[in-house]
Design a protein that fits this description.
Elements (H helix, E strand, L loop, with lengths): L29 E5 L15 H14 L3 E4 L3 E2 L11 E5 L6 H13 L3 E6 L9 H9 L11 E2 L22 E5 L5 E6 L14 H16 L4 E4 L50 H13 L6 E4 L6 H4 L10 E2 L2 H4 L5 H16 L6 E3 L8 H4 L22 H15 L5 E5 L20 H5 L44 H4 L6 H14 L8 E2 L7 E6 L2 E6 L5 E2 L5 E4 L6 E2 L3 E5 L1
Parallel strand pairs: 1-2, 1-13, 2-5, 5-9, 9-10, 10-11, 12-13
Antiparallel strand pairs: 3-4, 6-8, 7-8, 14-15, 15-16, 16-20, 17-19, 18-20
Helix pairs in contact: 1-2, 4-5
Bound molecules: beta-D-glucopyranose.
The site of beta-D-glucopyranose (BGC) has 10 residues, from loops.
């Protein structure tokens, strides 16, 4: 360990004074997702970094978030924007150093903001020393047993061991070449070929990750968002699997992250949601509980139905699981009421809070998604040739209404950087700028996720809209984003930023996070109307204006003139 990486003597932690006492803070927390490469760039190289984040934390404190979750900043060849980790206990020079991480965490804690980091245990980078050792050691070695190597099928092993497809398109197996230049075994990669899957049946792998957890817990992190938390165990024998035909949110012919959100139980593919994953999290939970201050685990588990997602947050497992069923719900009253009921029921059955989320770095931003007029599969993204492109005005209006609804719900909510500015998906990125492995693995058939990852606009008139001081940007920012820059919205009544800030303020003031939902009768089907404690919430997903009940409007997603117009949400007290 270098001097720089040594822990400072008085590392502020979640138990320090600026943070509210640790008791189950996560049950009601509003957690802001930072995508480090696109948040703020102090070095000016066009890629965001940790010092950039530290310098902008004040604005998140002013917004009123309780915690930040950072997508990966670890040492990585960046084949999948850092979700290909080559060293779990160090920072990629692109993002800074361990000292920068310490400084960022200390500043966040000073501001009363908890820090959650992303853990990527399903796979490492192919450049990780473990995988390099596995390649060098050859078939049958202990080094290979840390990953999922198999002999191929066919006369000379020329066929992959099974028919699984990668989430990013193409086969989920790659054949390696031996030192003698001859083709030999195959390894499994549910994602890009640069992301070999680890074998979680191997005790050695489990022990390494316990050490990784300790490393970051000792550094004062308040929790982990666990990547692909439904994928770490594969069915015995790695049986062939053919996904259902394409349609709705089901991914035809590919190992999509989501098995398809529905109310009914579905057969899980042999690589998702295997029972064996749960014992891993039980072991992690014991470790986290041995640390003070309420450290948490949040599962990225694309599983359905919600009653099954709840298995990830049983009392001795994780604390939270992302509610992707909610994210995938169309902007329609009936569907929203159903998913809210299902979420509260499923999570409270195991004593966990529901979570709510509308956007993240893997999905089309909700200011665009909610106005798409044709089906769009998760992860496929949108681009100039997509059918059913959104009307931006409708999208923003619905996004604001959807957010005002989400932030009124009991439980914990996730916000993805830039949604507080009303950013739409960047649709017109030039092909040459695209970087998502999905784009390359499907030969441009799927645009992938770059459109939701474009660097943030901070100041309308600065280079790269204030993302840095040089104007460099790893993905080009749409010129129209100057109007959405934070400095154009700060303190401006009616702006999206002020809507978010005020919603978070009221949410805290009225303790909405720890409240509950009591449905109100007498509204049309496309209206979502309920009381949460002292607040009445009405969301109109239809087009017809509706009369408002008695009370003072304390928050509204759109201008109100006596009635609640379509695509709008109000809070009244
Ligand atoms: C992350 C993605 C990533 C994938 C592979 C996910 O679900 O959120 O961004 O590409 O895991 O690590």
């Amino acid at each position: 360990m270098s001097n720089e990486s040594a822990l400072p003597a008085a590392m502020p932690s979640a138990t320090d004074a600026a943070l509210a006492p640790g008791a189950e803070w996560w049950r009601t927390a509003v957690i802001y997702q930072i995508y480090p490469r696109s948040f703020a760039d102090a070095s000016g190289d066009g890629i965001g970094d940790l010092p950039g984040i530290t310098g902008r934390l004040d604005s998140l404190a002013a917004l009123g978030v309780d915690a930040i979750w950072l997508s990966p900043f670890y040492t990585s060849p960046q084949k999948d924007a850092g979700y290909d980790v080559a060293d779990y206990c160090d920072i990629d020079p692109l993002f800074g150093t361990l000292a920068d991480f310490n400084a960022m965490t200390a500043r966040a804690h000073e501001l009363g903001i908890r820090v959650i980091v992303d853990l990527v245990p399903n796979h490492s980078s192919d450049q990780h020393r473990w995988f390099q050792a596995a390649l060098a050691a050859g078939a049958g070695s202990v080094e290979r047993a840390r990953y999922i190597f198999r002999d191929g099928k066919g006369k000379n092993g020329e066929l992959p061991p099974n028919n699984w497809q990668s989430v990013f398109g193409g086969p989920a197996w790659t054949r390696v070449t031996g030192a003698d230049g001859q083709p030999e075994q195959w390894y499994l990669h549910l994602f890009d070929s640069s992301q070999p899957d680890l074998d979680w049946n191997n005790r050695w792998v489990r022990d390494q990750f316990l050490d990784v957890l300790r490393f970051w817990l000792d550094r004062g992190v308040d929790g982990f968002r666990v990547d692909v938390a439904h994928g770490m165990i594969k069915a015995d024998g790695l049986p062939d699997y053919t996904p259902p035909a394409e349609g709705g949110s089901m991914g035809g012919g590919t190992a999509t992250l989501e098995p398809g959100i529905s109310d009914e139980a579905t057969d899980d593919p042999p690589y998702w949601a295997q029972d064996g994953v749960h014992e891993i999290y039980r072991e992690w939970r014991i470790l986290l509980d041995s640390y003070p201050g309420g450290r948490i685990l949040a599962a990225e588990a694309w599983v359905d139905p919600l009653s099954k997602v709840a298995n990830w947050v049983r009392p001795d497992e994780m604390h939270q699981a992302f509610n992707f069923a909610y994210l995938e719900t169309p902007w329609a009253g009936k569907d929203l009421r159903a998913v809210i009921d299902d979420s509260i029921e499923a999570f409270s059955a195991v004593g966990a809070p529901s979570t709510w989320v509308l956007s993240n770095h893997d999905v089309v931003r909700h200011a665009s998604r909610l106005a798409l007029t044709a089906d769009n599969l998760q992860g496929h993204g949108i681009g100039p040739k997509t059918v059913g492109l959104p009307d931006q005005e409708v999208g923003l209006r619905r996004a604001r209404a959807a957010t005002a609804l989400m932030l009124s719900l009991p439980g914990s909510a996730y916000i993805y950087q830039g949604e507080e500015l009303g950013l739409p998906e960047a649709i017109d990125l030039p092909d040459s700028a695209r970087q998502d492995p999905t784009w390359f693995r499907t030969n441009g058939e799927r645009y992938g996720r770059d459109g939701c990852r474009v660097p943030l606009p901070w100041e309308a008139d600065a280079p790269a809209f204030g993302f840095n001081g040089t104007g460099a940007s790893w993905l080009p920012q749409p010129t129209g984003w100057s109007a959405l820059a934070r400095d154009k919205q700060l303190g401006v009544q009616g702006s999206t930023l002020e809507l978010y800030r005020r919603a978070l303020e009221l949410r805290r003031e009225h303790a909405l996070g720890s409240g509950d939902v009591t449905w109100l009768d007498g509204y049309p089907d496309d209206v979502v109307a309920f009381r949460n404690g002292s607040v009445t919430v009405i969301a109109n997903t239809g087009t017809k204006p509706i009369a408002l009940p008695a009370g003072d409007v304390v928050l509204s997603s759109a201008p109100i003139d006596g009635e609640l117009p379509g695509d709008a949400t109000v809070w009244l007290v």
